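Allow me, if you will, to draw on your knowledge of protein folds for a short while. I have a record of one protein: its chain in single-letter code and its fold written as C-alpha cells. Kindly check, if you would, that the fold set down in the C-alpha cells agrees with what the sequence suggests. Thank you for your consideration; the sequence and its C-alpha cells are set out here:
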Amino acid sequence: MTDAARHPAEALDPGMQSERTYLAWQRTGLGFAANGALLVHAALDGRTALVVPGLVALVVTALLVGRAQVRYRSTVAVARLGRSPADHRTLAVTAALTTALCLAGLVAILLG
C-alpha cells in the first residue's frame, strides 16, 4: 500500500485545485472579452444598440479577471487553514452576467 493510500489527506494539494479554478475564471474572462469585442465591432459596423452590451462585457471582463486574482489568493489562504473556500455569491453573479451577455448576443444575431 502506498503512502498516499494510507494518508489520503496528505495526498491532496490544495494549491492545485485553486489554480484550476483560477484558470477557469481566466477563461471565463477571456470569453467575456471576446464577446464584448465582437459586440463593439458590430456596433461600429452600424448596429449602434450593441455598443452598450459590448462595453458592459468588457468592463465585466476586467472585474472577473481582477476578482479571479483576489479569489485565488484568498482561496489558497483559506485552504491552508483547513476551511472551505465556497463562495456562492460570486458564482450567482457570474451566472447572471453570463446569461445577460448570452441574451445580448442572441439579440445581436436575431436583429443582425
Remarks:
- The longest helix spans residues 14-44.
- The chain has one domain: 14-111.
- The CA atoms of residues 43 and 50 lie 5 Å apart.
